[in-house]
Amino acid sequence: MTPRQAQGSGSVEAQGPGSVEAQGPSDAHGDVTVDGVALSAELAGGEGRAASADVAEYALWLGDDALVLSQQLGMWIARAPELEEDVALANIALDLLGHARSFLRYAGSYDGRTEDDLAYWRDEHGFRCAWLFQQPNGDFGQTIARQLAASTYLFELYTALQGSSDETLAAIAAKAVKEVEYHRDHAVQWTLRLAGGTDESRRRMVRAVDAVWPYVGELFRDELVIDRLEGIAVRPSTLQPGFDAVIAAVFAEAELEVPAGAMSSAGGRRGSHFPTLGYLLAEMQVLARQHPGVTW
């Protein structure tokens, strides 16, 4: 796989009179600045305000899923099994961070909170991410198994969400689905590569699928808020047939089997979380909480 350049909501370019291009020969390195960049302009969906608390809650679900998965993948930078994967996983993490920013901005618009307020100043019980996204990275095989399930689900979700009557949610989904299609392809290719590689890589891939799959069922569970968002939210249970068809095709080629064990009774949408989330949030939030109000 060819690594892509960092793109989407996770990248900025230097602009204005302080940028590198504007420097003369006496200052070869220039003064790279983002002072002239309006970061809010990178967000998909515009500046609309969430119409109700239920819409904001739904946007929070989607934003938290993307934010936590982005943080997980970012931990692989400088630790991936090859340099190309450092770049690939970093790009995927940046895409997801862009999705999270857009959804969290929209969620916070209902009651005046910013995306940073929601990312850094909520405690664990205030998050609404599904347990799948909270699963530890483990070895590379476990990360790929989690990524296969997550990206396949997100592709089905964003494809359907483009038809939402909420213009902001539809616009975010239209941008995100193009990026998640790449994420899914990356996960599929690595699943096939690991399952069809050495005896050790196959053993680890089988173990990874067994570890991750109990947390897939929560993604398709219809919570009560969905009943109040007819035409706006995507009913999770409707996404499972498309998800199952993709996974069945991948697993057939990889000669893997869907684990037959019971699904977890995970309750991430209601603020009940897997033990790893607290540690992840502590690392993600430490700078903002130690230096409140700091800017740079």
What's the structural blueprint in terms of helices and strands?
Layout: H1 53-74, H2 83-109, H3 115-120, H4 131-134, H5 140-161, H6 167-195, H7 199-212, H8 224-227, H9 240-254, H10 276-290
Give me the Rg, rounded. 20 Å
Principal-axes geometry comes out as: globular
Average of pLDDT: 87
**Strand segment tally:** 0
What is the helical fraction, as a range of percent?
40-55%
GO cellular component, one term: cytosol
Protein name: Ring-1,2-phenylacetyl-CoA epoxidase subunit PaaC
Structure description:
This is Ring-1,2-phenylacetyl-CoA epoxidase subunit PaaC. The protein contains ten helices and no strands. The protein is mostly helical. The protein has one domain: Ferritin (Up-down Bundle). The chain starts with 52 loop residues before the first helix and ends in a 6-residue tail after the last helix. α1 (53-74) runs antiparallel to α2 (83-109), α2 (83-109) runs antiparallel to α6 and α6 (167-195) runs parallel beside α9.
Could you list some keywords that capture this structure?
296 residues, Ferritin, mainly alpha, 53% helix, Ring-1,2-phenylacetyl-CoA epoxidase subunit PaaC, disordered N terminus, Ferritin-like
Q: What does this entry show, briefly?
A:
With 296 residues, the chain is mostly helical.
